[in-house]
Structures are given as structure tokens and as C-alpha cells.
Amino acid sequence: MRNPATVEAQEVTPTSAKVDVRDNATTLALCGNQNENLKLMERRLGVRVGQRGTELHLSGPADAVAFTVKLVESLEGMIRAGRAIYREDVEQAIKVMGRGGAESLQDVMMGPVLKSSGNRQIAPKSIAQKRYVDAIRANDIVFGIGPAGTGKTYLAMAMAVSYLLDRKVKRIVLARPAVEAGEKLGFLPGDLAEKVNPYLRPLYDALHDMMPIERATSFIEQGVVEVAPLAFMRGRTLNDSFVILDEAQNTTVEQMKMFLTRLGYNSKAVITGDVTQVDLPVGRMSGLHHARSILRNIEGLCITEFTEVDVVRHPLVQEVIRAYDRFDAAQQAAKALKQAEQTAETPAPASSGEPSSS
């Protein structure tokens, strides 16, 4: 028997709804492996979802049930249009609909960029990601700035591979500044290429996810795909190329200017980074931060900003980012308060003049 106090405490009247998906194949795709998609909806939206054949029975607070009905109908439409739906897609769909409504879900998630080597579609999963991909298509220089896990480098790589396979460019150039993230790697054995390889590993990982390893290796050996530290860019002109500069927050102002002036004819450049994770020595200004402040309002150049809402990794990553942001804000507030107290306690300087005697 239900606790009467609990029922009285509810602010929203419980309700129920039924959605008939109408065919078994679409129902199975919507529910996910072992109903993982339905379980995710229950956890995130506070509703109960039961399945009977092709029917989904929803119960819970009225506003949550209404939202879930729209979500299910939108996901069903995407499945019928040929879009595979996975648990992470449901996670992002909830975010997108919560911010932009059901109509924007189709606009965001039905624009595939590329099929990965596992035959999985790579497509935007948030409104900011959709704007980012559109910006890359429309502009020759694009900055993607935001926290880890927002897909900045991954989507840029997908666009680069897509342009290469469609013969819109002749090569891909991937670059990163060789700056340690608090760890000294100079002791590593090998020649220069082998020493900088740890810095470039994330770019290789993304590339191998886009195409079979054998084909990626062949492209690298032929020079069609070049992965190099930023220092190797000096003095070059990059024509017919799709150039990606990753971890750009670790460039100096001079390095950023050098990179941006490498762009040749029929080329695109995408610069990605997180201005909150700068590993430069204290006192050195980040080239990414500087470029963001001076390069706005230039035709053909676009700056796309991401937030923790756009994180597409494990859901806990978003919470971790928010926790660190709260900590940093508290530290800044405490520092400002301490400075204000010190200013208030500082005595006023004594007057240098002597009182006149009568």
C-alpha cells in the first residue's frame, strides 16, 4: 500500500500514456539491447516504461510522460528514416529536446558526416555540434573551443576524412603542439618522430576509428595523411589540404599566428582546444585564447563554443566538468574576498605635512 504522505507530497499528478510503434523491428531498435534505451529513459526522465509487443506504456508525472512521448515519437521517426539509435544517442536526444524542442532533434541528428570503420554513422549529437559541422562546411577557418568530450577533434577528423574520400582535398594534415601535460617525456627512447608520437596518439586513434587501420596506415605512408608536431609547420604553404590543429590551447601567440598563415588555396583549417586546460609555462599567454579575442567578425572564419552540456562521453564526465567549474569559481571568489579584506585593512598613508603652531 502506498504511503499517503508520499502521494500528497507530489507536485505533479501521475499520469500514463501509450505509444504504439506498430512493427517489431522498429520496436526492437527503439528499445535497444536488453531494453537499455528504455532503462535510460526511466533513469533520466523519472518515468516508468513498460513494453507489451509493439506498445510502450508510460507512467509518471504528467510533464515527464509528455516529454517521453515526444522523445519516443522522434526516435521512432529517425529509425524509420534509416538512423541507428544507440544508448548514447538517446542520452543526447534528451539533452537536445530539453534545449531545443523535438523539431530540432531531426535537424541535429539526421545529418551524417561519415560512416566509421565499424560501419557506424558519425553524426552531430548536440545543437552545438551541428553548428560546428555546418561551420566547417561553410568556412575555411573554424575554431572549436570547449571542454573535453564535446567531440571537437572527433568531428573535425570525420569531416576531414569525408572531404578526402570525396576528393574535395588531396591530403589531411594533423598537428599538435608538443607540450607535456605535467609529465616530462624527453627521456623516451627513439628518434624525433618516435619521441613526439605520444603527443599525437589521440589523432591516430580518431583516424583509425574513421577507416580501417590498413587503409589509414597506407595513407600515412603515402603522405596523404600527415601527422606531425606543430613545429614542423613552419615555412610551409598547405594547398588542397584539410588541416587540423588539436590541443591549440597549448600554442603560444606566435605559434598560432604561424599556423594560421600556413593556409593555402582550396584548404580548410580547424583549430580545436580547451582554454581551461593550458599546459604552457606560467606567464605565457595561450595562442588559442588570444586568437579567440582578436579574430571574431572575420568573414570566412567562425568560432564555435561548446559547454559541458555538449559532452558526449560517459554522463559522469559532464558532472566532473561541472564540479571542477564550481571549485574554480569558489576559489576565485575566495581570492577576491581575501584581496578585498586586505585592501580594507591597509591603513591610509599618513600626511607628510606638519600641523602649524599658533
UniProtKB/TrEMBL annotation:
Matching Pfam families, A to Z? PhoH (PF02562)
Source taxon at top rank = Bacteria
Q: Which Gene3D superfamilies match?
A: P-loop containing nucleotide triphosphate hydrolases
Classification via InterPro entries? P-loop_NTPase, PhoH, PhoH2-like
Using the UniProt annotation, give all residue ranges assigned to the region (Disordered): 338-358
Which subcellular locations apply to this protein?
A: Cytoplasm
Q: Which residue intervals define the domain PhoH-like protein in the entry?
A: 121-325
Question: Which GO CC annotations does the UniProt entry carry?
Answer: cytosol
- Ranges in a coiled coil: none
GO function terms (MF aspect): ATP binding
Q: Tell me the protein's name.
A: PhoH-like protein
Taxonomic source organism: Cystobacter ferrugineus
